[in-house]
């Protein structure tokens, strides 16, 4: 099997994010950058498939500037075989990324595309669904369990929905987006880190793919969330009910 896995560079979840004075974006100085946590889960699942199915290949795909190589190399150190980086300095919206991935899928012809369900920086949760629509492939989002058929021609996916769990099955090729409870990503070992330096990381200029990157969404301004207000202490249940009704307006 060939499994294509997307990798996005995002700020570390433990990083304190500050908005630029002009409100046009975040302050990137001194920020630690990591692989999107949901993408790490997708990489881990691809590696587990590779371990079960002999002769499989795991290919990482990322979009961004050359500094994204650091996160891609981390994925290679985990055990992926090779990687592709589409180089651009522009911030791309989900539809543009989906179109880029569709072009790479046409070239690579993977049996399965694994993606994090969303990126923790913009929380769009859209690229996987858009890619499935562009390719006309079946998809299963929010996967908490992935079972590959013995003949590697179909997959059964348990996904998390509001009412509990739902199980879907479809023939490959297809797209699966991963949720938190799917697995626990492994750490890159020292031998893995050494091997990653020699693995193929192919860079493709964005212009070479011939994809329409015209933005359709413009970020007008970013604002930090309001500071949390101090709580109130009440003496009686009646006072609590009154405040919930009159001030909080939740009952």
Structure description:
- This protein is α/β, with parallel strands linked by helices and 251 residues long.
- It has one domain (2-218): Rossmann fold (3-Layer(aba) Sandwich).
- Helix content is 27%, strand content 26%.
- The protein contains six helices and eleven strands.
- The protein has helices at 37-52, 69-78, 94-108, 127-135, 190-196, 237-246, and strands at 2-6, 9-11, 33-35, 57-64, 82-87, 112-116, 139-148, 154-161, 164-171, 174-178, 201-205.
- Strands 9-8-7-10-6-1-4-5-11 form a nine-stranded mixed beta sheet, sandwiched between helices. A two-stranded antiparallel ribbon has the order 2-3.
- A hairpin with a 5-residue loop joins β7 (139-148) and β8 (154-161).
- α2 (69-78) packs across α5 (190-196) and α3 packs across α4 (127-135).
- It is globular and about 70 Å long.
- The N and C termini lie far apart (55 Å).
């Amino acid at each position: 099997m060939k499994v294509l896995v997307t990798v996005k560079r995002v700020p570390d979840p433990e990083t304190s994010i500050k908005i630029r004075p002009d409100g046009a974006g975040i302050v990137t100085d001194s920020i630690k950058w990591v692989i999107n946590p949901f993408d790490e889960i997708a990489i881990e699942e691809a590696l587990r498939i590779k371990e079960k199915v002999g002769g499989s290949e795991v290919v990482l795909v990322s979009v961004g500037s050359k500094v994204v190589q650091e996160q891609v190399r981390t994925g290679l150190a985990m055990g992926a075989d090779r990687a592709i980086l589409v180089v651009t300095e522009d911030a791309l919206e989900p539809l543009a990324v989906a179109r880029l991935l569709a072009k790479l899928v046409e070239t690579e012809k993977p049996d399965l595309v694994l993606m994090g369900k969303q990126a923790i920086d913009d929380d769009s949760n859209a690229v996987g669904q858009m890619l499935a629509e562009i390719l006309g492939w079946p998809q299963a989002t929010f996967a908490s369990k992935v079972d590959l058929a013995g003949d590697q021609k179909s997959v059964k996916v348990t996904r998390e929905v509001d009412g509990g769990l739902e199980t879907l099955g479809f023939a490959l090729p297809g797209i699966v987006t991963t949720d938190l409870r799917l697995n626990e990503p492994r750490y890159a070992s020292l031998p893995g880190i050494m091997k990653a330096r020699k693995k193929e990381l192919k860079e493709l200029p964005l212009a070479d793919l011939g994809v329409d990157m015209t933005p359709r969404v413009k970020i007008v301004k970013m604002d930090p969330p309001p500071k949390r207000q101090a709580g109130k202490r009440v003496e009686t249940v009646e006072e609590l009910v009154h405040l919930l009704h009159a001030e909080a307006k939740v009952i």
